[in-house]
Give the backbone structure.
Amino acid sequence: SIDYEKVDSNTKFLIFPIAVIGCGKTTTALILKNLFNWGHIQNDDIHNKKDKAILIKRSLELLTKDDTKCVIVDRNNHQFRERKQLFEWVEQYKEQYLSYDTNIKIIGISFVNSIDDLDRIKNVTVNRVLQRGDNHQTIQLNKYGERKVVGIMSGFWKRFQPVAEDRIPDNLFDLLIKLDVNNENHENSSLINSMTIINELHEKYPILIPKMPTTMELEDAFKQSIEFKIPSKTKEMNMNNKLTKKINPAYFSANLDNKDKLIVAIMQLMEDDSSNNHGINFEPLEKLLDENLFQPGFHITLSHVAQGKRGDPRDKILWKEYLKEFDPQLTEISARDNYQETLFKTDYRVKFKLDKLCWDDKIVAVMVKFEDTNCVTDKDNVTITGLECSNKFPHITIGRLNSDIKASYSNSLCERIMKDDADGESSYYLNFNDSEEFVADVCINL
Ligand code: DGI
């Protein structure tokens, strides 16, 4: 049987960083590459995002070369999920690339080791990244650009999960090396970090680093890597690429966290009215309740991409306003290495009251009203001018009585009711009196 612990001349090594933007991953990788002729694969250079495993496939491919003993897989891997992915991909593809007698050791280099650490390095990393941008010839970081960059960086901070050595996936590292980005003389943290890595590897895997480089060699490699980084600005270009390849949201909405309060209000209204409203067909509402046909989530659509593309001038302007206002967050989402969600909460809110319960035999909706047509506020309640609801009749689709009906059919129901050409026969409404105030979170929907 194969001894997985064995390290011999056939052993190959992969290095996975755990970091956030600006920690010096690339600089450190370049120092090591420079000194030992190791491989370096950068996530930012991979444009085929469809096959995400390509990052590991390319790394394994490089490892097949006789003179490449080690490859640095340059990606932030700031979450458990991403680290787990890397380990899974190695398992999945190693046999495809490497011969049966090649074993792989996986080394983690953790640039940030705790949430406290993260707080300590925010300033250093932001300053370095902004400085990197200022020096650039073509892409000057004006204020707006800075906001974007910090927006991208803070997305990584929010999601950051430090290494937990005692659990999956971090207990799979054969060696974990802890680094420091904000050490006493953080002017050269990448130099110090490279030394730490080299020392620890030399000690544990002398076959990988049989001989320590001299201080001179190290300092030269550091200078070259820093110099290479600053004029080339590879990262800014990549950030900029990501800006142009920004995700396009499908719509912006105001989502209720909890459906119960609204359902209770509807039931209350039905109860109050059912005794004195003859001629109203309550059957659809009863069906909704009996068969629990409520929409999975309750939201008011604020602006939809279809309105942005094909709507009237006001709709188009509003869509642009939403895109502009949420640009930092859209940029930040686009810059994530991967994401599966399609709904992203923002810090903004919409307050509303209930106006009318509307229904026919196909759909049930609640028309809502805002105090101000500029219905969106930030978390401190300050109105964001220009963000109105694009729909003429703002509403929440409550439930579809027939699964073939699209939620957008609520628009035509509300329109019919408000035009008062409600054909009386088939569409109905009840007014909410003294509605309570509701608060919903503005969300981006992909
Ligand atoms: O985003 P990362 O790959 O983690 O970070 P990077 O290697 O691109 O480094 C971010 C910026 O910081 C870049 O402009 C180079 C610079 N930098 C990296 N290490 C050091 C450094 N600057 C100084 N002064 N000292 C360092 O040790």
In short: The two ends are 49 Å apart (CA to CA). The pocket of 2'-deoxyguanosine-5'-diphosphate is lined by residues 19, 21-27, 128-129, 132, 187-191, 226, 229-230, 235 (CB under 6 Å). Residues 134-140, 230-244 have pLDDT under 50 and may be disordered. The chain has two domains: 12-122+160-232, 251-445.
